[in-house]
Amino acid sequence: MKARVHVMLKDGVLDPQGEAVRHALGSLGFEGVNGVRQGKVIELDLADGTTEDQIAAMCEKLLANTVIESYRIETL
Amino acid sequence: MKARVHVMLKDGVLDPQGEAVRHALGSLGFEGVNGVRQGKVIELDLADGTTEDQIAAMCEKLLANTVIESYRIETL
């Protein structure tokens, strides 16, 4: 089975990487870009029968820093 | 309007970051993780009326390195 985990910085946490992208888009002439947030997406190829609880444990222990990041699990 | 851009390394391009995550998950005792690919997700807050073509241009010019990365645009 496959699963996709989206990890984003929580609202209110400063995102300098996203801010740099926003600035660069403006410099390239793209107008109307009001905000950019950058996160990670991790595609996992897992053994069949892996539960969502196990994937959540992977997120809590390794994939996301839950102090500043939130995660969302999507099974495919 | 909001849009989300997913940027992943193309198939066949070595992903050392994903490989490191796979190895780390194994070390933490998670079994059955056969493969991990890591990519980026970029959330854009755009002016209303921005077309998908304009977002694709942002991807081609800045957000993705289309030699080794593929991108997918999702408007929300």
TrEMBL record, chains A, B:
Leader sequence range is none
Protease as a keyword? no
Q: What does this protein do?
A: Part of the phosphoribosylformylglycinamidine synthase complex involved in the purines biosynthetic pathway. Catalyzes the ATP-dependent conversion of formylglycinamide ribonucleotide (FGAR) and glutamine to yield formylglycinamidine ribonucleotide (FGAM) and glutamate. The FGAM synthase complex is composed of three subunits. PurQ produces an ammonia molecule by converting glutamine to glutamate. PurL transfers the ammonia molecule to FGAR to form FGAM in an ATP-dependent manner.
Which compartments does it reside in? Cytoplasm
Task: Give the reactions, separated by semicolons, that this protein catalyses.
Answer: N(2)-formyl-N(1)-(5-phospho-beta-D-ribosyl)glycinamide + L-glutamine + ATP + H2O = 2-formamido-N(1)-(5-O-phospho-beta-D-ribosyl)acetamidine + L-glutamate + ADP + phosphate + H(+)
The answer to whether keyword Hydrolase applies is no
The record's listing under SUPFAM superfamilies reads: PurS-like (SSF82697)
Matching HAMAP family: PurS
Metabolic or biological pathway: Purine metabolism; IMP biosynthesis via de novo pathway; 5-amino-1-(5-phospho-D-ribosyl)imidazole from N(2)-formyl-N(1)-(5-phospho-D-ribosyl)glycinamide: step 1/2
Similarity annotation:
Belongs to the PurS family.
**Any one GO CC term of the record:** cytoplasm
What is the protein name stated in its UniProt record? Phosphoribosylformylglycinamidine synthase subunit PurS
State the top-level EC class: ligase
* Listed InterPro entries: PurS (IPR003850), PurS-like_sf (IPR036604)
| Oligomeric and partner information | Part of the FGAM synthase complex composed of 1 PurL, 1 PurQ and 2 PurS subunits.
Main location class: cytoplasm
Q: Which GO terms describe its molecular function?
A: ATP binding; phosphoribosylformylglycinamidine synthase activity
Question: EC number(s) per UniProt?
Answer: 6.3.5.3
Q: Which GO terms describe its biological process?
A: 'de novo' IMP biosynthetic process
Which of UniProt's keywords are assigned here? ATP-binding, Cytoplasm, Ligase, Nucleotide-binding, Purine biosynthesis
